[in-house]
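User: Please predict the structure of the protein below. I'd like the answer in structure-token form so I can feed it into my own downstream comparison script.

Assistant: Understood. Taking the following sequence of 330 residues as input:
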Amino acid sequence: MIKNIKNKGEIVIYKTKQGPKLDVKMEKQTVWLTQAQIGLLFGTQRPAITKHFKNIFESGELEEKSVCSILEHTAADEKVYKTQFYNLDAIISVGYRVNSKRATQFRIWATKTLKDHLVQGYTINEKRLLEAKEKFAELQTAISFLRDKAKNELLIGQEQEILNLLAYYSSSLTILEKYDKNKLALPADGKTKYKLTFELALEIIEGIKVELVKRKEASDIFGRQSAHKLESILANLWQTFGGRELYKNLEEKAAHLLYLIIKDHPFIDGNKRIGSFLFVYFLDKNNFLYRKNGEKKINDNALVALALLTATSDPKDKEVMIKIIVNLLK
């Protein structure tokens, strides 16, 4: 249990019958814990917490300066010291890395809590979304799809990224406020300026293969084509019907590029890695890879999760998978 003493209010973040009970700081609309408190929360020692933070910051999962702060702390001797504290984002990230019974209980709780907030939150507001019923159903389908796929053994270790995908996708809840204020509008579609040709794709794949073989991360069959599937996939992205392109915007083209390379297996080996790389390359060449703040629209960890979700998905769920990718890009 985490308790805010200063404001005489209680905020329960995570609670088990055995404890622990921590007195924490509440500042800047979030909670703050020291490394020692995080260790106590997840039933492990401080050196392990330090190691996890080092990996988190080095991998780029979180930016250290945005989740850490030097705050005043009153110790047992009643003296006030300045100590390094970590916010809720950092605490949750560590919780998904620690290997302990208490951390496992936390992950189970966190997954259930997020699911409940998402599902129940949408249910409560369903009547307010009568004119956006199709969008609402899409959100519900995506949540169910991601929740079910999280159980696949190939996605073990990707639980946090799936939670992140759910969180990104749930940002569509802002539709509620816009709906109430009569400001509901579709997001702008990306324009495709750069076309990925079959010949160029082959050059890119060969470059990837040379690098991976050099690092002993791929064999000679990596990127070896199976029939003429790749050429068909790329041609399909610009397919027209009645004089109009079948996939009218950049997001749809990129989503189908990732999905079709992974699911149609145009190569004997390396489909997920090749699909992911060409997806990023295509977005980057069209100046659509980054948000205005400089962050990737789909970061590397999220892309790994998306690739695995695509690989393990049932072909009948293609439309759901495509919509998830498209909405994350928007």
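That's the full token string. The first strand starts at residue 2 and ends at 4.
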